[in-house]
Amino acid sequence: MTEAWQSARLGLRAWLSLLAILVPLSAAAGEERRETVTLFAAASTIDAINEIAEAYASKTGGSIRPVVAASSTLARQIAQGAPADLFLSANVDWMDHLQQQGLVEASSRLALLSNRLVLVSPLGADLQIELAAGAALAEALGDGRLAIGDPAHVPAGIYARQALEALGLWAQVADRLAQAGNVRMALALVDRGEAVAGIVYETDAAIADGVRVVAAFPETATPQIDYPLAIVEGRGNSAVRKVYEFLKGEEAAVIFRKHGFTATARGR
Fold this sequence. Notes:
The protein is an alpha/beta fold.
């Protein structure tokens, strides 16, 4: 065997050895780019989150899979081991609930967004009322019902009850409610004319063609409506952190603002 041939064989072996290392690394990088990150998000964020998922895929080639429902439902599912990577809640208490159990990364938690409550009615309805202490809300409803998220666990419903209590109006309407499983269901009841009015987030009212805003609740009557974001404990791989940073960034903030949210992204 000639010296040249031996040299060629050694060179080929070296190249094959290098290839054996590089191919798995390249495949791993490709898998990371294609990895789907599951985002559990409050129902009220669905339109903004879907648009953000499209923007993220276009920019990075990565994939966000939104799972939307009432924050209470999502928090319970995470507590039961659902495979969520990130949680965007419409209620601070439900995030607190998970954090106290060590189920989200406390260091990743921040107030990403804020929102406000409004009273809506079907488009074309003549409901008129000023949301102030002692207002005749029950009278304004006539024989109809007021749609809200279930005040026992749905954030928008919890906020609605707190706002009505602050104005002294809860007792008027407590037996006139059409309770819904999440805020979008409450909005749909009004949109379809099955409730004469509803209390939803301002962002929800903005996307429904069949409703109009009757009045906004005064800030003094409602708590701060923050949407905390956090990484689920044990799920913080590089793909998840990349989505997390994107949600905090200006490109996502522009989309959130487009949908009526106030983008805050402040840590806690």
